[in-house]
């Protein structure tokens, strides 16, 4: 694992300050009581205020994270996990890239069930 593990309790944000919520399919491996995030999980973004600089401004908030580089060294049932060193891109509803996701809080202790 290249960085601290991202779990369902980790703090992730879009480049404009929106919050990322993780809906994980992992119910097997946890870190301090919260499940590890997988590259195949759903990462939705709420509260992104981004607007395209047009006249009038056009809302174009980030809505989802697409992972470009997961943590290939650590897997759960063969699926790569996400760590602080993973690279993800925030996308608008139109699938237009909006910038990188920010991971600010991960975990280090892993428990297998």
Summarize the structure.
This protein is an all-beta fold and 113 residues long. The protein has no helices and 14 strands.
What labels describe this entry?
113 residues, mainly beta, three-stranded antiparallel beta sheet, 14 strands, 49% strand, elongated
Topology:
Blueprint: E1 11-13, E2 19-23, E3 29-31, E4 34-35, E5 42-46, E6 51-52, E7 58-59, E8 62-69, E9 71-76, E10 79-81, E11 87-92, E12 97-100, E13 102-105, E14 111-112
Antiparallel strand pairs: 1-13, 2-5, 3-4, 3-14, 6-7, 8-11, 9-10, 11-12
Can you tell me about this structure?
- This protein has one domain (11-106).
- The mean pLDDT is 88.
- The protein is elongated and about 50 Å long.
- The strands form 6 sheets. A 3-stranded antiparallel β-sheet has the order 4-3-14, with no helix packed on it.
- The relative contact order is 0.33.
- It is mostly beta strands and 113 residues long.
- Helices cover 0% and strands 49% of the residues.
- It contains no helices and 14 strands.
CA(first)-CA(last) distance? 19 Å
The total count of strands amounts to: 14
Number of helices: 0
Principal-axis shape: elongated
Q: In percent terms, what proportion of residues is strand?
A: over 45%
Structural category is mainly beta
Mean pLDDT: 88
